[in-house]
Amino acid sequence: MQVREGSYYIQNQKVTDLAAQFGTPLYVYDGEKIVQQIQQLQQAFVGIDLKIKYACKALTSISVLKLMRKHGVELDVVSPQELQIGLRAGYSGSQINFTPSGVDFEEIEFAVENGAFVNLDNLDVLEKFGQKYGSSKPCMIRIKPNVAAGGNAKIMTAHEGSKFGIDIRQQAEILALVEKYDLKIVGLHQHTGSDVKEASAFIEAASRIFEFAMAFPDLQCIDLGGGFKVAYKEGDYTTDMESFGKELSGFFQQFCERYGRKLQLWFEPGKYLVSECGYLLVRANVVKQAPGRTFVGVDSGLNHLIRPMMYDAYHHIVNASNPDASVQETYDVVGYICETDNFALGRPLSKVTAGDILVLLNAGAYGFAMSSQYNSRFRPAEVLILNGEAHLIRQRETMDDILRNQVEIDV
Ligand code: PLP
User: Which amino acid residue places its CA nearest to atom 14 of ligand 1?
Assistant: First the structure.
């Protein structure tokens, strides 16, 4: 988003015009930014066979998935429903990786029947997979390397206490099942967590997986998950993709030499690809003065963007109706949900008047995807800007959506 001639723009679209045309609250995604992030990632890894599997849980809109596909990005899904959205977006099953957590075996069967690769994440499911498919279907295993990293405890997934994956210390049990059922393990997977600050954590997890991999002769890929860090506020640490890519590429090449064959390296980024492309446009309903503070109540809340309340996440906010930032006042920006529902406390903004359009930045990942109908409110519409044109890619919900599955009985 840039300021030009005193107005905020996303590509060539004036933010306040988007709000007027599509209404608020509104999610807007900048397609150019998504493509930029894809290319940055593709270019960062040198001399290795890299595959990017977009972790589509971050933002599951079909049109975004189509854009990913157009630019050579495949998919990582965590539910049969995400898998079906991927198929709808034109992916073949073999381009989709299913990485579930503790699901019923039926979900695994569904994925296999649709040609997807499955990351098996516990010994029971490995046994069931062996009983049903033996060596007839290739599979992957999710390993927990016991590396603690991630923006906060809720989004760490590879530490010892984490529910995810099979503990790396259980290699003997895994190998026994592989032998018993002649399993064809074609990939090993690990996902460290989200918002991982230290590149060294990825390297540490990778080195453990590489060591572990030497006992699996049929591998085609190593999948190191997602978790790359983007900046939510100025000065935030981010994953320096160029230097990380170089370091890891070299490390991976050494591993391949030791392994005896060239393998593919997979990553499953979510945030890195779609966080910064996303903006949540909201309207100030009220500006309420109280002793010592001023609240701005907006037409949205934790039902549309839960990250501030769920993870104490920071989202930068600007007042698109008053881009002159030279005079700032301090506001508590709060949602309309009937519980404590803060987007930001004590935040300096250019003067806000009821009716102004505020923009929450970095809202593409885990924004709409984690939204709900709490308080029986409609989820926002979504717009994707491609080549300067704003396309509605999801309609705002209506009362029919709220009532759709309710079954009314006479009482
Ligand atoms: N892969 C797996 C298995 C995940 O669980 C997640 C996020 O929860 C991701 C990839 C994407 O993480 P991020 O959005 O931080 O890149």
Answer: 270
